[in-house]
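User: I'm writing a tutorial on reading structure tokens. Could you give me a worked example: one chain, its sequence, then its tokens, then a sentence or two explaining what the tokens reveal?
Assistant: Sure. Here is the example chain.
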Amino acid sequence: MSQTVLETTNKHRSARLQSLLRQKAQWVRQTVLKMAVYARSGHVTTAFSQTELLVALYYGGILRLDSKRPKWPARDRFILSKGQGGIGLYPILADLGFFPKSELDNFAGRDSILGVHAEWNTPGIEVITGSLGHGLPIATGIAQVGLLDKKDWLVYCFLGDAELYEGSNWEAAIYAGSQRLSNLVCIVDRNKQGVLGFTDEIRTPRDGPRLNPVDNKFAAFGFDTRVIDGHSYREIFKAFTGLRQRIARGCKPLLIVANTTKGKGASVMENKRFWHYRVPSGADLEAARAEIRRAHPSRKRQAKDTAPHEYE
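And here are its predicted structure tokens:
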């Protein structure tokens, strides 16, 4: 059965649940920062933009999974297509028991099971996705197999928005739409930035080409679409309600465009250029630590900022 820290049924929008999820999101951001600073590596702003989405999926009872059996046949398949976001998923997987939290100490280190980009040898990670544009084609194939075998598990594909510049995504999308892969759920982390520039706010030659309207583009390829605030638990849970029933109804594949902010939670990095693969240090680091700590002041601190190996 699904193993989550927070079991939910019809109370997805309760104030208590959302408070608990905010605590988890705070802990994830603190942990990501510790890991990146210690390793001097990692995509911090990418991890921060996706935090609420992954916290809701893994702790909120949306994904069907079993940390004791990572390859449980009845599990939902979660494909982290934006592989650079692995640093933001690893703390959650460790917290749920997929592997010991001590592994977080060795992020991107020698003989580590936790790479800068997500790899299949990490318990809880389905496929390697360091090269962008491959996650959706893989997810589409897995979803096709699931329908042919009459399985009730879902395939979730988590995409970066700038990743949509890769043409392989659209080849997969046109096939998924034509085959009505009702068990396929695509999530776009719409933080509106790539490595060097913005996707739609054109200011310099590094920006663009424009991606909007993302939802209409996928709709033209045969998807149902929903657009949400990717940092709002109320909107996240509303968007992910009733997905398993879509299989029996033979619905279209679903695209959820989650509007987010790159670097969310640390204003020194929020929506700023040149932070894609940059780890904060000095005054920037202290400002980020302090702001994340203030995000949920009533919560007991889980680890000292000066102790990068403490994750309890």
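What the tokens reveal: Confidence is low (pLDDT under 50) at residues 5-12, 300-312. The chain has one domain: 15-294.
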